[in-house]
Amino acid sequence: MPCLDVDLGTEGGRVVKGVEFKDLREAGDPVEMAKWYNEKGADELVFLDITASHEGRGTMRHVVERTADEVFIPLTVGGGISSVGDVKETLRAGADKTAINTAAVKDPELLEETSAVFGSQCIVCAIDAKRREPEEGRDRLDRDPIVVETEDGPRWYEVVIYGGRKPMGMDALRWAREAADRGAGELLVTSMDRDGTKVGYDLPLVNWIGNNVPVPLIASGGAGVPGHLLEAFEAGADAALAASIFHYREHAIQDVKEFLAENGVEMRL
Question: What are phi and psi of 192, to 5 degrees?
């Protein structure tokens, strides 16, 4: 699943990519890139307006409409969605699913309300997670976090909102479970520590959620080579999101899909 992170830096928006949510660089026009991915065999497409919540505005629906006209695969749209009305407008603009992040953290009942109206199948809860050392930031929590073993030792994960700008003092693993209980039909979980690094997904994060939360998991953050996507599936992800390796033509989508199929991952080729 290629991901288009879109910023309003130019008229009509631009696709950008950074490292750990910083140092953004331009990658192309969102509509043209969406059309290209559709032609090249992507299974689904994710469109995230990464500045909408921070700037307190709605998603760029005119860009969504133009994108939907060019895309004939499932399209998930997120950014600035904060009400039942926002979900309705985004679906009307051509999205198949909506991703809710900041608004759901601030008002968890929004997941219940939107899934009750539109069905959980089109409500994706997006979670941006930041690794913390065992005692780091515990003063922000109202209960002990879930600590998992990583290659760097024990760590917990904090929820961060507004495009990676504001830590919330919430355990991302507990929030993932709560989001599913409240009606989210899928989880899109991004490791802030791995975002744009191309060193591989945060497998302990993927593994815990994939094995403890009963809804499909989209792993995001860190893909650098096809083997990293395979590792994410083996760790428990149901889908793998990637940006840099596709945006900059480092790996062809069809080649990655064939590699995954050869290694036992069911693929639509």
Answer: -65, -30
Q: State residue 23's pLDDT score.
A: 45
Amino acid at 52: A
Name the H helices within 71-198.
84-92, 102-106, 109-118, 172-181
233 within 8 A of 201, measured Cβ to Cβ = no
Residue in 100, 45, 92, 105 with CA at minimum distance from that of residue 65: 92
Catalytic residue among 29, 128, 193, 202: 128
Asked whether 104 and 169 are in contact (CB, 8 A), the reply is: no
**Percentage of the residues of the chain whose pLDDT score is greater than 70:** 88
For the chain, the domains span: 3-262
Write the pLDDT tens digit of every residue in 165-213: 899 999 999 999 999 999 999 999 999 999 989 999 999 999 999 999 9
- Judge whether 86 counts as a catalytic residue: no
Selected from 3.90.1150.10, 3.40.50.2300, 3.20.20.70, 3.30.470.10, the CATH number assigned to the domain covering 3-262 reads: 3.20.20.70
Give Rg (Cα) of the chain. Answer: 17
Distance, in Å, from the CA atom of 86 to the CA atom of 105, rounded to the nearest integer, reads 16
Give the tens place of pLDDT for each residue, 45-82.
Answer: 998 886 655 555 556 788 889 889 989 999 999 988 99
Q: Which residue from 137, 135, 115 is spatially nearest to 124, judged by alpha carbons?
A: 115
What's the half-sphere exposure (Cβ side, CA atoms, 13 Å) at 80?
20
Inform me whether the pLDDT recorded for 26 exceeds 70.
no
Tokens at residue 177, please?
């479970």
Is 128 among the catalytic positions?
Answer: yes
Contact 142, 175 (CB under 8 A): no
Give the chain's mean pLDDT. 90
The secondary structure element, H or E, covering residue 234 is: helix 226-235
